[in-house]
Amino acid sequence: MRTTLAASVDEGLFPAKDLLALAEEGCRARLDHVPLEVLTGAPTRGVRDPYRLVGSVEGLAFKPSWPTKRSDPSMEIVDCRLLLAFAEAAPIFARHGVTGLVYLSAYRPPTGDLEASLRKSRHGAGMALDIGMLDRSDGTRWSIAKDFPKDLGRPPCEGREAEPEPGSAEDLRALVCDLAISGTFSVVLTPNFNQEHHDHVHVELNPRVPSVYLR
Question: How far apart are CA 183 and CA 12, in angstroms?
Answer without folding.
Answer: 10
